[in-house]
């Protein structure tokens, strides 16, 4: 269950780039075998499918971490609360909304903050899968492009500083 999270991001990005390859990728082969698509799709080369593909891979990679946080949070909910709700005949959806959710809210907030910060800072996954593609340009990739490719140190530094400030602001607001 934790394997996607344990694999280094560069390795999983390259693995998914191969699986999403338009000519010999297993995703296209499987979808064509099932009759879902007629011809291979260039998942990472097409501007309309590149970003959803990268997001899907990022979700695949980080879901085990969020699941582990939620499992730990659920382990802290006292069984007495559930027992009292069962004795009182409270429906399952009300137990979830009024008992479980409020008690795991702090862990849920931590998971949301971690994922939001990861999404803001993502570089390696996007860069390995699509390079400098316009459709998947994140602020980190943009800052790197300005610094390394265009040799514009001022602009690249400003973009990196802006990213730092946004991440810092989000962190302060959530805490």
UniProtKB/TrEMBL annotation:
InterPro entries: MetI-like, MetI-like_sf. Residues 1-174 form the ABC transmembrane type-1 domain. Keywords: Cell membrane, Membrane, Transmembrane, Transmembrane helix, Transport. It comes from the Bacteria. One of its GO terms (cellular component) is plasma membrane. The chain crosses the membrane at residues 24-45, 51-74, 95-117, 153-174. GO terms for biological process: transmembrane transport. It is a multi-pass membrane protein. It holds the Pfam family BPD_transp_1. It is found in: Cell membrane. Belongs to the binding-protein-dependent transport system permease family. PANTHER family: BLR7065 PROTEIN, INTEGRAL MEMBRANE SUGAR TRANSPORT PROTEIN. This is ABC transporter permease. It comes from Tistrella mobilis.
């Amino acid at each position: 269950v934790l394997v996607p999270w344990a694999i280094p991001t560069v390795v999983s990005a390259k693995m998914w780039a191969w699986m999403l390859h338009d000519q010999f990728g297993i995703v296209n082969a499987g979808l064509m075998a099932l009759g879902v698509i007629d011809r291979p799709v260039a998942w990472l080369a097409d501007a309309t499918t590149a970003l959803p593909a990268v997001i899907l891979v990022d979700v695949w990679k980080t879901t085990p971490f969020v699941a582990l946080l939620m499992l730990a949070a659920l382990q802290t909910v006292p069984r007495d609360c559930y027992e009292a709700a069962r004795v009182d005949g409270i429906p399952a959806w009300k137990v979830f909304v009024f008992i479980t959710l409020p008690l795991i809210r702090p862990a849920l907030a931590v998971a949301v903050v971690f994922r939001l910060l990861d999404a803001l800072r993502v570089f390696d996954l996007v860069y390995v899968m699509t390079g400098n593609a316009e459709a998947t340009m994140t602020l980190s990739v943009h800052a790197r492009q300005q610094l390394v490719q265009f040799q514009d140190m001022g602009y690249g530094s400003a973009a990196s500083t802006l990213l730092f400030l946004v991440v810092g602001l989000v962190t302060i607001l959530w805490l």
